[in-house]
Amino acid sequence: MESGENGAFHPLDEKSLVEYIKSTPVLVARLGGEAELDHLTIKEVGDGNLNFVYIVTSPKGSFVAKQALPYVRCVGDSWPMTRDRAHFEVLILKEHGRLCPEHAPEVYHFDRSMSMIGMRYLEPPHIILRKGLIAGIEYPLLAQHMSDYMAKTLFFTSLLYHSTADHKKAVAEFCGNVEMCRLTEQVVFSDPYRISNINRWTSPYLDQDAKSVREDDELKVQIAELKSMFCERAQALIHGDLHTGSVMVTTDSTQVIDPEFGFYAPMGFDIGAFLGNLVLSYFSQEGHATETNDRKAYKDWILNTIEETWSQFEKKFLSLWDLHKNGNGEAYLPDIYNNPEVLHMAQKKYMNNLFHDSLGFGAAKMIRRIVGIAHVEDFESIKDESRRAICERRALNFGKLLLKERQKFDTIGQVITAIKERSVQ
């Protein structure tokens, strides 16, 4: 449901949210009817950088209320930000939910004038994946689920499935999410490589490391190539912020949330974001090790998950391509790629390029989380700053290597070997 009946925008607090719910029948119904409105529990849980998020529960129902603010919440109203991102978030939640309903929460309500989304509450024991990784919890189905989500959402929104006419129409619709794209351009591809008053790092331990990023000419050349690709290549409808804080999990459920940065962009940006954040988690583990748990077995699980996520993604993506090779997709027309040999050659080149794109974008996401504005709890929760800095330096050095030498890696297994080698340097 999309509506605008609740009037002019105003930020909702717990009290005004109750009044809003009372005036919104679909949300009343989700809570079990009007009789339940006197028994509501509302909890503000927005620990992100941009939005208010409330969990609303009654004895007979629940939902999450998410409201986009007209500024970056973690900075304040000195950094304005379009509220229209909520509109694009809903479009992507619905489209990705249609393509992969097992791993995208259902949207119940959207009020564009209030930038307010009502969606499924992912009840306990669901937790943010990043928090589970910090706690050392293994998720045996994570690689299976995330490879499934990425294969379906990326393949079915690409020219491997779309006609060029349908693709350009879809691309045009999401060009309106320009402010979120520009924010990504700034904080991922620009700020870490220059002096910026919003950059931060674990100082003084990483002062020289941050300076080395700003003075590395080859790194700048490589990040420029990725920035151009991000801005210019409308390959598929990506999530746009697919880190481990945008995934909620239990041991048998994986749900992808918060796609407000999404638009048509390189597939590798999503794949790289997820894999890169798993690599960050890997390098953080020594900072969470104790005398009774050295985290070595858990680090092995993370590496296996990285390897399995890419391997399963590649297999599933190619299976979808084979299944739909005679469909409407116009990138590889069946009367041209008309024998198994030429199709295999085309697929091999496509996946090799996608692999290197993913490594590059993953490296960029790693670097920006260490010397840019927005850091990750994996490292930030390590209280001993000198210990934290050692973990961050190893991750940063690996990210720099991966960004500059991504073309030298032929397999995900080679990447895993390189991670291991640099975890002790």
From TrEMBL:
InterPro entries: Aminoglycoside_PTrfase, Kinase-like_dom_sf, Methylthioribose_kinase. It comes from the Eukaryota. One of its GO terms (molecular function) is S-methyl-5-thioribose kinase activity. PANTHER family: METHYLTHIORIBOSE KINASE. This is S-methyl-5-thioribose kinase. Coiled coil: none annotated. Keywords: ATP-binding, Kinase, Nucleotide-binding, Transferase. The keyword Nucleotide-binding applies. Homodimer. GO terms for biological process: methionine biosynthetic process. Residues 42-275 form the Aminoglycoside phosphotransferase domain. Its EC number is 2.7.1.100. Belongs to the methylthioribose kinase family.
